[in-house]
Amino acid sequence: MIDNIENIALEHIRAIRADMAYMKEDVHEIKSRVNTLESGQTTIIQQLDIFLEWLPVSTFDTTDCWSE
Question: How high is the mean pLDDT in each 10-residue block of the chain (68 residues)?
Fold first, then answer.
C-alpha cells in the first residue's frame, strides 16, 4: 500500500516537473518577445525624436485647435 502511494506521489511530482519545464520555456519565449517589442519601441521613439527635431516650430502652432 505504501509503495502504491509513493508511486502515485512520484507520478504527480514528475507531471509537475514536466509542466514547470513547459512553463519555463513559455516564459523564456515571452521574455524574448517582450525584449524585441521594447527594442522596436526604442527605435521608433528615437526616429520620432529625430523627425520632431527636423520639423519647423510653426508646425506645432495649436492656437486654433481649441477655438470654436
Answer: 88 97 97 97 93 75 60
